[in-house]
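Students often ask why we bother encoding 3D structure as a string. The short answer is that it lets us treat folding as translation between two languages. Here is a chain of 131 residues written in the first language.
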Amino acid sequence: MEKIWVAHKDEIVEGACKIVKVKNAEYGIYKVRGEYYAWRNVCPHFGAPVCKGVITGTRLPSSVYEYKLGRDNEIVRCPWHGWEFDLITGEHLVDPDTKLRPGKLEDGGAEEERLEKADLELQAGDLYIWL
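And here it is in the second language, the structure alphabet:
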């Protein structure tokens, strides 16, 4: 496995995405509620660059003509067709069986690489992807 530096943790802020190219793939790196997540920049719907989409929240149950938003900065909306995904779990908001391709943050070490997975490691303030 190869460890590749992708960002300093201070470059990744809540409500934003840093897209990095590693080898032949792009990954979006996010910070959500203080935790780091890496997702392949590919929407499972039509292959759109999902990480270039808007980072938002979602509507919560409310009365007619009342719009309550929640989960701010936890949802990414695909720029092509508007599909929305949970940035923590990678699940599509309507169909949980449809998911983004995940990455995982580890505090040292990395699990064995899988085809659709990028492992992140936080080490001394720097984020690395293991391939």
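Translate back mentally: The chain has one domain: 3-130. Keep this in mind for the problem set.
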